[in-house]
Amino acid sequence: MHHLQLYDPPLCCSTGVCGPSVDPQLIRVGSWLNQLKNHGVRVERFNLAQQPQAFADNAQVKAFLASEGPDHLPLVFVDGRLVLKGSYPDALQRTRWLDEVRGTSAIPGIG
């Protein structure tokens, strides 16, 4: 079973899908994370504004924040390895990763 960790920049709520102007990208990412969960991927999502300790507890994330700063979030880890930084997975990446967990044991470009 794969383990995906998403470290979000500071958001107004746990998913960023709240308030008067919702970023459609956050809606798509949230839906994709739910699909991954439904296919057996262990998903953890952390919001810097609400869960700063999770950022401090992960040595790789802490080092990244010290060198790059929070303006370069989000970070995506799969099975403990940083696979994406500074942006959320685009539509092609989300589709490829979801297709892989549906049909094989490895995510392209990750495992």
Characterize the structure shown.
By secondary structure, the protein is of the alpha+beta class. The protein has a single domain (3-103), classed as 3-Layer(aba) Sandwich (Glutaredoxin). It is 40% helix and 19% strand. It contains 4 helices and 4 strands, in the order E-H-E-H-H-E-E-H. The protein has helices at residues 24-38, 52-57, 59-68, 91-103; strands at residues 3-8, 42-47, 75-78, 81-85. The chain has a 4-stranded mixed β-sheet. It is globular.
Question: Can you lay out the helices and strands and say which pair or pack?
Answer:
Elements: E1 3-8, H1 24-38, E2 42-47, H2 52-57, H3 59-68, E3 75-78, E4 81-85, H4 91-103
Parallel strand pairs: 1-2
Antiparallel strand pairs: 1-3, 3-4
Q: TL;DR?
A:
The protein has 111 residues and is an alpha+beta fold.
Distance between the termini: 12 Å
Structural class: alpha+beta
Rg from C-alpha positions? 14 Å
**What name does CATH use for the topology?**
Glutaredoxin
CATH homologous superfamily, by name? Glutaredoxin
Helix percentage range: 25-40%
Identify the CATH class. Alpha Beta
Tally of contiguous helical segments: 4
**Strand line-up in the sheet with most strands:** 2-1-3-4
> How many domain modules?
1
Number of strands: 4
Reported CATH architecture: 3-Layer(aba) Sandwich
Gross morphology is globular
